[in-house]
Amino acid sequence: MGQWGGILGLETGIVQAPMGPDISGPELVAAVANAGGLGILRAPSQDYPGVLKEMVARTRQLTSKPFGVGVILAFPHEKTLKDIYAERVQFLQVYWGDFPRERVEEAHKAGVKVLHQVGSVEEARKAAEAGVDAIIAQGTEAGGHVIGQVGLLTLIPSVVDALKSYNIPVIAAGGIVDGRGYVAALALGAQGVCMGTRFLATPESYAHPLYKQKIVEAGYDSTEYTHMYGRGRWPGAAHRVLKSPFFENWKNKIAPDETEIGQPIIGSTTTFHNKEEVPRFSGKVPNITTQGDVDSMVMYAGMGSAHIKEVLPAATVVRSLLEEAQVIIEQRLHGLLETQLKHPASTML
Predict the structure, then answer these.
(1) Where are the domains of the chain?
(2) Fewer C-beta within 10 Å: the chain N or C terminus?
């Protein structure tokens, strides 16, 4: 069983995944931080100068607790990293690319801890060798862009075993939305969990109301792993999305070389004060400002959507997850262990 309690100097082992481009804004990040978790802003692309500093300042107005910023390494990020270090944000989450030792040391000199999200044992080992402070191991159950090809049940123990000599926490990501998932992750050897979809379905997230509604209505088979959206901007980046009539109609029709570029416009959205058109097959999710054919826009979501039954405040999500996990560990699992010790034969299949 993995560590029960806080990681990286935090009160809990709960991390809120950065969701973008602006879904995990200051309100959500601060709410998670105030509840004892690690809230993470999604760094805007360098096309939005000054926005990161604005987001950090707003978050600090809402919380005095530590929080982080997530950076996608597949896109230009040099200036973004400099801004993060200049702002002395406590945590940096990096994803989809290498972050070598010299980069980690640069972050550490600025007083920033580094969490590297990976999808394989090889990536995890490379990140650990670079000196990161924690590994987020993402299974294919995760919503949004998914870098690996392995589910959590196999990935987490494999990463934990591979990193035994490094003494850094492994955080499980992918399909976890409640205390059951938290306990399962701990049993596999993880020391914390990272959740995106569960925090998307909160009042504090900047997701469109229809997006949140679709999450709550999702069933056990309502998501699919695909390459259909946003592949002009981010080629080869697989992602898990909510199925929709639009998706089902197009997933086998879209040509291999077809992208969102040059497609009909299906709506508009305002991102970081800039109003932008949304073409068909765009990889940009609908936020609270989005107008148009929202039903036909991409909605990233993990397989755990099936277990999200209502939109709840972020603090309630953190508290209920911890309470559920504690009940499972102290009552259900303890009771099962006592029964097995008293009547070992009766518990065998």
Answers:
(1) 14-205+311-330, 209-305
(2) C
